Structure prediction request, 697 residues.
Amino acid sequence: MSSKPSAPAKAPSASNTLPQAAVDAPFIRFPPFPVAPEGASIISFSSFKPYGIQMFSKAGEEEEVELDGLNIPTVELRVKHDTDQCKSNKKRRKKKKNGKMTTDANGKRIPWWEEWEEGEELRVTGPGYDPNMSRVDRLFQAAQDFRSGRTWPPAVSGAGNLWDQFRLYSGLLTNTPVYRKSGNKRDGAESPEGFMSDEEDLDMKVIEVPDITNSKRKRPAQDSSLADDGDVDEEENETYKKKKLGSEEDREDRLFVFLDDPEISVKVFLSSFMREQGLIWSERNLITAPTLLSFFLNFLLRNRVFPEATHERGLRSALNVVEQAKKQLPLTFKIGKVIPDEFSGGCKECWGRKGGLSWQSEPVVLPENTDSKAESQVKDFETGLSVDGIQATRVEIPSPDSPSQIVKQIIEDNVGSDVELDISTHNPWANEPSPTATGAWGDIPAQWGPGADTGVQDGSVWDAPASNWADVAGDMEANAASSWSTPVLQSLMPFLGPTVLPLTHTTGIVEFSTRRIKAIHPPSPSPTPSKSSSKSATSANANNDGPDPEQVEDALDRAFAKVVLEPWIGCITMEDSDISRPVIKSSSRGAVVDEFSAGSDAQDVVDSTSGAKPYNPYKDDIVLLVRPAMVEYLTEGMGLGALWIQMVRQEGVQPRAGKRKGKQAGKENKMGETYWYLEDLMCIFPSFYTAREKAGL
Prediction:
């Protein structure tokens, strides 16, 4: 075989012949040195003195400013990093703790969100997020970058806890269910298989089992705790797998709800979810939660984690909800402190409570055949005993809670068992006459004469005999000092003066419902008095001695602000919603439409007897009177769940004839509706409240 001739060797190039040091040498070499710019002086090497960061001789304060050798402060970067710390005195100064609260020049603590706002626009991830990655992976990566790319406040601020709550809610944090293995009730289950402790009792008892193979007794059901260990472990593993699978499916559902519709997801988190988790009872949480979500949503938009147009629109809509929550969530906490106000309290003292709210659990409905089933089991047991030759006798056991049994047991313990006593003849209350109810204001007949004390006393200071009012006042002060807190009686006098409101008006409809704030109107300006008006008022007083309800309504219109409330019926069809159907209390007075025909689509119904339109809690608005100072806490769209009470004119009370003429004749009030007050405020909702069922969570 002939071999091919090899190619001739190439001649070495200049680059191949140069030494390696010459190839890697920089392009610019000195000397020659460049000429110094005009006006600049260059210090010679012999005159140069190096200056670095000063080494403090003593351990300085934690917030001491770092200086160089010329006492010039070092430049602080706008973007904070986890490694930003003084390294010049590392051995003598403690490392700055992560998340320590900083203060301003006046020593006032700076909130953590103000620290985050400084340089927040520069928090951009370097390479960005690969659009080829799935949406779930990009969201997980963005959440991790958001958590690690900033200095978090300490745990007492609650920001870290709320961030974990949001991750649990949105599916970004896995919450694996903890399943505890049930204890085995079988003997020796706590010891490992094939092992017997030396301390265990080795005595064995032989039990003779009678031959009952031919008996007619039913075979007892096998106890589930006596099953094989393998079967029990297999069942427990299956249960754990099902729970884990269900948890994973729920987490994925929550995750896709946030990706597909971030607006509805944020609404649920800031309303119904926080309510279920008990996060709304802390004012700090109501401020921190929307602020934290605002930073996270802006982080997603700034880094274009989801560059698609549909996702960007959804995130911006969610950001608008967060801006509303920043204002309304803290207001929910403040409203609970100031409402009901003094006016509603004065009305309650004037007319009394009209509907105490009570929470009752649903009654447990037992099957109809519960008693028959128990009786059949007893008969089967008696049959089994009779087969074995055992006679069963039923004994009636008296209830231990019976008063006669308790009294008898106490007497026997103290007197002796040889003394026979008839409990019924020793009842000190057997012949005591009970008071009879003669009126609707109470169970005790009230009298003004000397025979008013009829033997029934409530233990108050009014029951004690007193020679003068000073004795009664002293007893009242003593009782008030001994109590936990002195009750404050609210009155209408500070707002209306010596008003005749209790004589002209009374209560009407009493309703418990959730209503949304529709509009807020300030108090009406006071009219300018004139001579003609004063003369007409004088003549009216001369012609009619009774109180004028229109004057009372005008005084209410000028003294209080009006809040128009509309029904909130958006979530009443959902079972687990916090917004329930309207309930008319038994103390209500006035015509109300039928419950089954009072829906939002119901037609207007007019009472044929009186000609007036009955009240419809599903459609009619109400006008709530509040003090003008309460207006700053209320915002249109927010919801209030309370017991609403209507104020109506007394029967037979008519306005004075000739008082109003022309356009004002026959006018109820400037709102065109009757006025209301509230007795109990039970719940407060933001305008964006959304139930979890609406989002499918």
Q: What stands out?
A: The longest strand covers residues 505-521.
